Amino acid sequence: MINLPPLQQAPNQTDLLVTHEAIHPFVHRTPVLTNRSLNEMTGARLHFKCENFQRIGAFKMRGAASAALRLPTEVRARGLATHSSGNHAQAVACMAQQLEVPAFIVMPHDAPKVKVAAVLDYGAEITYCNNTPEERQAALEEVVKETGAAFIHPFNDYGVVAGQATAAMELLEDTEPVLDILLAPVGGGGLMSGTALAARYFSVGATAWGTEPRNVDDAARSLVSGKIEHNVDNRTVADGLRTNLGECTFSIIHEHVPKIFTVTEEQIVTAMRHTWERMKIIIEPSCAVPLAAIFAYPEAFARKEVGIILTGGNVDVDKLPF
Amino acid sequence: MINLPPLQQAPNQTDLLVTHEAIHPFVHRTPVLTNRSLNEMTGARLHFKCENFQRIGAFKMRGAASAALRLPTEVRARGLATHSSGNHAQAVACMAQQLEVPAFIVMPHDAPKVKVAAVLDYGAEITYCNNTPEERQAALEEVVKETGAAFIHPFNDYGVVAGQATAAMELLEDTEPVLDILLAPVGGGGLMSGTALAARYFSVGATAWGTEPRNVDDAARSLVSGKIEHNVDNRTVADGLRTNLGECTFSIIHEHVPKIFTVTEEQIVTAMRHTWERMKIIIEPSCAVPLAAIFAYPEAFARKEVGIILTGGNVDVDKLPF
Questions:
Q1: CA angle at residue A235 from A234 to A237, to 5 degrees?
Q2: What is this structure's pTM?
């Protein structure tokens, strides 16, 4: 079994190459799609890295794989733990199943049934708690104490960041024209950090820009103020992007991401619908934020070769926002 | 400009190769996707040729291109005509736009607005008529008489069949394991005929099987009776498959397709939903019929390498059947 060295600081070029090689058996190499209609509508040339086709339906698989492979063998054997009601929970559960170790997931009582079922399908054990940050944290600490399992943070972990970077690495490798811009949405910042590092180490001068719902624009404000800002109200259709940055991800984003575009709820839903109708692929609302930014700020993208990480496609088709 | 020779009989191997080469500038080479979940659920190994990603969102683009390129230059210059309220209308309109010739489309008054808008977007001229076969035919004849445009039949045309065959040719070329079975849905039989000929000429012994909604099982009954059967009632969620076979397509299917599986409405909707949820791609109900057959007759597909033509993704996301 592979053991990657733990990362005490932002991954460098070699760390990313080694990570990409190591996680390869546990993740899919997803395709890059283009679309004539969306190119015509935006005036840019768009290259979509389809992480909605990734295992568990989202890029989170990459970070979970990278972090789990960095645990010493004897620690890993006790199992993987996390708290999440979203894609990260499925990613940790799926990775544990692949490694044949236990998974312990803390989820709120009111988590969507479909998410609960998916996590159970991977053989994970669920601990339910009330849906407040304090109770989730307390429940997780209790689980870790009881089981000895290793906590895998959803984003504030350099190992997770190294895993998320591999999506942009593959996008750069699989795109024929030289990309001018890489776009990703920003939630906790794991994907954004990884994407920025991939641009830094593996592109010929591509800029990594962030995109964020205006309703939860903590990262955009953090870039301006130079410290981690928080959201007072976190209502947005892009439910994967409600989180604030962590210390690890903020430090990388602050250094490597020059700009974060923000978009309205309506722009997000419209971009999601355009993607469904023109590309015939299913993406979740959070995933539509980069395309929404291209429509909202066309002058920034006109005639540019733009790489977009499509983050995930886990949406309840009975509860669409349009 | 390319001119292909007209086809007076079923296309042979050379005809298909020449057609594939000729239509290449007018159509996309669509990807072949696989899906671990659906493989596990069915016990087969499935290879999906994603014609839902084709130009105009459906395989019909291929047949329209092939037929149009077979028209003598002076005929083609007068324009392309057809009657259709579905994907074939968009395909003819899109091909005419690419050839820079006029398109004349006869559509019923009550055609979905989204289909009308798509045809108009390609610069076609629409003639509206009442929604009966007789009035559509009369309106078409009037248009052809007035404009001198060439009628492109949606399926009963060896040129159209040759175009539709190219989807399966690419699927066979782009799939690493040797395919045992090719599956397509049967409406008018253009795609099914082409798929069967591709299997005959370009595979190492793959069998082409048809799949059809039980509610409109005219093709399955035609195979049994040895003559073209008709549907009395054509109510099905798979609205692209209501048509009966034509002489050209029946003769090819009768010779080259040993079996047509039929499936219920519920099986179609379930397979459509599985495809959306597991593959994260949008397919229309007609497109789900082959996968529905695999779920319905698992013993016929167990452990087989199965190629499936995903025919199209043009669905109104405001009116889903689930």
A1: 125
A2: 0.95
